[in-house]
């Protein structure tokens, strides 16, 4: 869900400007899942651009307070959202923890790293939502650690139906700074892609697991 349309358009433009999002319908990327994709998103690049990371930090911070009120803790999903999560926690003057994909195999075998007390209100920060599976595993780990997870904010979502269904089934509220629809509208407007390429990109999202050029 998009909380602010202006923010969605601005975020999409910034991600395109620094090639954090690349659109290449004629020569698709291959995802780790094996899917062919005309889009590749690496939001970790934002950390290398101070003005952009600060914009994302500020928008996250504002939306967290407006949607949830001030939580007790900010949690980042490893590894992509650790950097931006720390910036948001710093901006809000809050403690920060991060969640590993799985518990460590040694030592204390933590999955949630940092100091977290049972019953604390937590908002989760994520960089990218595809199917939502890994993000929701992080939410589950936080809940198992005793946290009261208020919801999640992410920089960008592909807007897959499966992700919407997964978050709905898990009863987790998700908001994103930008998403695929706003990205495509802006990419055509700013001539990053043609209207014909926009149609190709729209077709891909209908069935990303079977799509090919």
Automatic annotation (TrEMBL):
<dbReference type="InterPro" id="IPR029057">
    <property type="entry name" value="PRTase-like"/>
</dbReference>
<feature type="binding site" description="in other chain">
    <location>
        <begin position="126"/>
        <end position="134"/>
    </location>
    <ligand>
        <name>5-phospho-alpha-D-ribose 1-diphosphate</name>
    </ligand>
</feature>
<feature type="domain" description="Phosphoribosyltransferase">
    <location>
        <begin position="55"/>
        <end position="148"/>
    </location>
</feature>
<dbReference type="GO" id="GO:0016757">
    <property type="term" value="F:glycosyltransferase activity"/>
</dbReference>
<feature type="binding site">
    <location>
        <position position="104"/>
    </location>
    <ligand>
        <name>5-phospho-alpha-D-ribose 1-diphosphate</name>
    </ligand>
</feature>
<keyword id="KW-0808">Transferase</keyword>
<dbReference type="InterPro" id="IPR023031">
    <property type="entry name" value="OPRT"/>
</dbReference>
<comment type="similarity">
    <text>Belongs to the purine/pyrimidine phosphoribosyltransferase family. PyrE subfamily.</text>
</comment>
<keyword id="KW-0665">Pyrimidine biosynthesis</keyword>
<comment type="function">
    <text>Catalyzes the transfer of a ribosyl phosphate group from 5-phosphoribose 1-diphosphate to orotate, leading to the formation of orotidine monophosphate (OMP).</text>
</comment>
<feature type="binding site">
    <location>
        <position position="100"/>
    </location>
    <ligand>
        <name>5-phospho-alpha-D-ribose 1-diphosphate</name>
    </ligand>
</feature>
<comment type="subunit">
    <text>Homodimer.</text>
</comment>
<keyword id="KW-0328">Glycosyltransferase</keyword>
<feature type="binding site">
    <location>
        <position position="130"/>
    </location>
    <ligand>
        <name>orotate</name>
    </ligand>
</feature>
<comment type="pathway">
    <text>Pyrimidine metabolism; UMP biosynthesis via de novo pathway; UMP from orotate: step 1/2.</text>
</comment>
<dbReference type="InterPro" id="IPR004467">
    <property type="entry name" value="Or_phspho_trans_dom"/>
</dbReference>
<dbReference type="Pfam" id="PF00156">
    <property type="entry name" value="Pribosyltran"/>
</dbReference>
<dbReference type="InterPro" id="IPR000836">
    <property type="entry name" value="PRTase_dom"/>
</dbReference>
<keyword id="KW-0460">Magnesium</keyword>
<feature type="binding site">
    <location>
        <position position="106"/>
    </location>
    <ligand>
        <name>5-phospho-alpha-D-ribose 1-diphosphate</name>
    </ligand>
</feature>
<protein>
    <recommendedName>
        <fullName>Orotate phosphoribosyltransferase</fullName>
        <ecNumber>2.4.2.10</ecNumber>
    </recommendedName>
</protein>
């Amino acid at each position: 869900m998009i909380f602010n349309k202006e923010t969605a358009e601005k975020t999409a433009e910034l991600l395109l400007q620094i090639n954090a999002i690349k659109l290449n319908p004629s020569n698709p990327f291959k995802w780790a899942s094996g899917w062919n994709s005309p889009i590749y998103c690496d939001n970790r690049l934002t950390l290398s651009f101070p003005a952009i990371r600060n914009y994302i930090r500020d928008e996250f911070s504002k939306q967290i307070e407006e949607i949830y009120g001030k939580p007790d803790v900010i949690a980042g999903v490893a590894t992509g959202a650790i950097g931006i999560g720390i910036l948001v926690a710093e901006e809000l003057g809050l403690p920060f923890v991060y969640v590993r994909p799985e518990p460590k195999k040694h030592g204390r075998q933590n999955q949630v790293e940092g100091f977290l007390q049972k019953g604390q209100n937590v908002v989760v920060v994520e960089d990218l939502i595809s199917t939502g599976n890994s993000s929701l595993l992080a939410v589950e780990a936080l809940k198992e650690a005793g946290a009261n997870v208020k919801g999640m904010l992410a920089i960008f979502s592909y807007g897959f139906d499966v992700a919407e269904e997964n978050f709905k089934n898990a009863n987790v509220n998700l908001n994103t700074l930008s998403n695929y629809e706003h990205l495509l509208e802006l990419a055509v407007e700013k001539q990053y892609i043609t209207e014909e390429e926009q149609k190709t990109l729209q077709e891909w999202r209908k069935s990303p697991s079977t799509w090919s050029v």
